[in-house]
Amino acid sequence: MVQKAKILLVDDRPENLLALEAILSALDQTLVRASSGEEALKALLTDDFAVILLDVQMPGMDGFETAAHIKRRERTRDIPIIFLTAINHGPHHTFRGYAAGAVDYISKPFDPWVLRAKVSVFVELYMKNCQLREQASLLRLQLEGGRVDEAKESAGLLAELSARLAAVEEQAEALSKQLDESADAAAVATAAHLERKLTGLRRALDALEPGTGGGAG
Question: Could you give the angle at the alpha carbon of 69 between the alpha carbons of 65 and 70, nearest 5°?
């Protein structure tokens, strides 16, 4: 089941919030209301949002001030903000909106189709980012799981090799004792060479054991 994105609607007028909900309901996402800048900041403390629709003209903390607080927080600074305003004060006012961190600045009355299309773009981007994070997390878990399985498999293989080498070492030791009793110098030299080889193998095997500081070079 795909989790729905949350869209934060910030406006001090209930009728405006109702209008926004009517326009965006077709996107089938979770719409969260906030009737003030303070209420919006409180909602942003606990939930992640795909996009924020923020009214500029609000009593108390206006849209610009609210946006400034949002952009100062590390958790929320990257959430796209679309400013909505009923009053067009010209290019300077619009520039102030973009300077406050808005990705778009829309004057009321706005075209519902245009607003819905713009919001849907940010929702889609948010969902894609969520999917990428989930895939990266799954891949990391798979890699870590693979390392664990590989370590277990390697430990089992090392134990088996160690046991086999121990058996050969016992046989070589018994052979050396038998050869020491004989005077065959060539056989004694061969046994000594075999022991050196076995000693080298044992050291190499011990170096591969976990916690010995050895490993692949």
Answer: 115
